[in-house]
Amino acid sequence: MDKAEALIGGEWHQEPGGRTFAVYDPATGAAVAEVADCGAELTGRAIDAAARALPSWRAMPAHERAGLMRRAAAELVERAASIGATMTSEQGKPLAEATAEVVSGADHLLWAAEETRRLYGQTAPGATADNRIWMLPEPVGVVAGITPWNFPVSMITRKLGPALAAGCTVVLKPAEQTPLSAIAVAEAFTAAGLPPGVFNLVPTSRPERFAEVVMADRRVRKVSFTGSTEVGRELIRQSAQDVKRLSVELGGHAPVLVFPDADPEAAAAAVARSKFLNAGQACTSPNRIFAHRDVAARFTAALAGHAQAITPGVDMGPLIDAAALAKVERHVEDALKGGATALTGGARLDGPGTFYPPTVLAGVTEDMLVCREETFGPVAPVIEFDDVEGVVARANATPYGLTAYVWTSDLTRTLRVAEELEFGMVTVNGGPLAPPQAPFGGIKHSGYGREGGSLGVSDYLEYKYLSVGLGR
């Protein structure tokens, strides 16, 4: 792509005046494309297009909407290699990982397509013999989606899928770091025959302008945002004026609890996969790893072994930009000064790009930055513990509440700890975290609302109460 554009009402548009912004490859620092830098005018036109398309899309029979969504999923799978290559060039993750994300994104779209057929209403007993009561599911209306750079395809389909299934139309702003992947997704939906205006894409390097327009427009009845807690708070404040519905998936600070009856080698292998996926740039990434003293040595050694087997630039990509790299360096330096030991990694790599090696820190204490802030990088801090009863309280000692990981062979402990953990999602012994049939989302400062499964579609529905009196 030389000059990528906005998709509005089924047509591609440049920003009036030709304003663009550059997209960079974090592995080399080189510019890879110029993208239309949309402002208030094109954002407003995108909302116009979505509002025009809404009546016919919501009225379309469910099986027809589902068929279009299945065709879009098929287009994504067919284009997975090329979209994956685009993602690698602008986001940095290895090609195999990027291609797998595209296929996963198609799976989320397929699941949502099938939910289209299951949007049932309800009936309730009438108040009198001549009264009938129904609850009718209806789409919220025009939806604005704001997606992050760390999973630039799957985060789009996890918003688009349930919104389209519910009968909503969408105006979406991708992250300014990764607009090319979003444009490739929009091309796939267009090729699948999605009606004009049902999905509109507005790339911009000025996200605050996009937010101002969508939050002020009463036709936009819901905003779905994935990103930082700071931005999420601002959107929540802005939503109050129009009482606009929000789903916000924000930051995380995920604990891992490795209990003395766990298999330390199996736990280490799974933690390494979760921690170093996408170079640690995931809100679900393990950020505080509590290992019981009885198994800590074996667990930490095995985790370090897995980290050493990862080759940056081959098995793991770079951090997204210089600011992300600086944060990781600051966290590691603080831990080392505080007495922690780097068993692997511990310093940025020489050469081009924003690469940081997989790093395992032992001797970590909870006053260090790696335990107080979300690192968002390939750093695994291990904290030893003795108090089995008190470690859950330590895990809960964070304002965030997205994901927690538990390793134990004790069924009673599994249930008790899972109930006590204050997180929206808990996975035990490596159970899958985000399949399309399950709701994804957090509590506390990690946000509210769910994506995935039937609950994900419900977030895009209103239920209208209908009471009818029967004449004689």
UniProtKB/TrEMBL annotation:
<dbReference type="InterPro" id="IPR016161">
    <property type="entry name" value="Ald_DH/histidinol_DH"/>
</dbReference>
<keyword id="KW-0560">Oxidoreductase</keyword>
<protein>
    <submittedName>
        <fullName>NAD-dependent succinate-semialdehyde dehydrogenase</fullName>
        <ecNumber>1.2.1.-</ecNumber>
    </submittedName>
</protein>
<dbReference type="InterPro" id="IPR016162">
    <property type="entry name" value="Ald_DH_N"/>
</dbReference>
<dbReference type="GO" id="GO:0016491">
    <property type="term" value="F:oxidoreductase activity"/>
</dbReference>
<feature type="domain" description="Aldehyde dehydrogenase">
    <location>
        <begin position="15"/>
        <end position="465"/>
    </location>
</feature>
<dbReference type="InterPro" id="IPR015590">
    <property type="entry name" value="Aldehyde_DH_dom"/>
</dbReference>
<dbReference type="InterPro" id="IPR016163">
    <property type="entry name" value="Ald_DH_C"/>
</dbReference>
<dbReference type="InterPro" id="IPR050740">
    <property type="entry name" value="Aldehyde_DH_Superfamily"/>
</dbReference>
<dbReference type="Pfam" id="PF00171">
    <property type="entry name" value="Aldedh"/>
</dbReference>
